[in-house]
Amino acid sequence: MQITVDLDVCASHGNCVFAVPETFSFDDDYLRYESTPDEALRDRVERAAASCPVRAITVTAP
């Protein structure tokens, strides 16, 4: 899976960080993320993307 986050749209609500801290985190108030996380996290990553209030996260096949 491939994750893309539009950082121009991201408003740092943190829903993704709470949902999948193995993939998303904050570093000095900036979102950091693993762009190709383990496939075992797919369900959680997709839920994190769906929970993003500004729809900044896109999950696609590799």
Low-confidence stretches: none
Strand order of the largest sheet: 1-4
Strand % is: 25-35%
Structural class: alpha+beta
Summarize the biggest pleated sheet: 2 strands, antiparallel
Distance between the termini: 5 Å
E-strand count? 4
Shape: globular
What's the mean pLDDT score?
96
Descriptive labels:
single chain, two-stranded antiparallel sheet, 62 residues, globular, alpha+beta, 4 strands
Please explain how this structure is put together.
The strands form two sheets. Strands 1-4 form a two-stranded antiparallel sheet. The chain has two helices and four strands; from the N terminus they run βαββαβ. By secondary structure, it is an alpha+beta fold. The protein has helices spanning 15-19, 42-51, and strands spanning 2-5, 24-27, 30-33, 57-60. The mean pLDDT is 96.
Write the layout of secondary structure elements.
Layout (H helix, E strand, L loop, with lengths): L1 E4 L9 H5 L4 E4 L2 E4 L8 H10 L5 E4 L2
Antiparallel strand pairs: 1-4, 2-3
Outline of this structure?
The protein is built from two helices and four strands. With 62 residues, it is an alpha+beta fold. The strands form two sheets. The protein has a two-stranded antiparallel sheet with strand order 1-4. It has a two-stranded antiparallel ribbon with strand order 2-3.
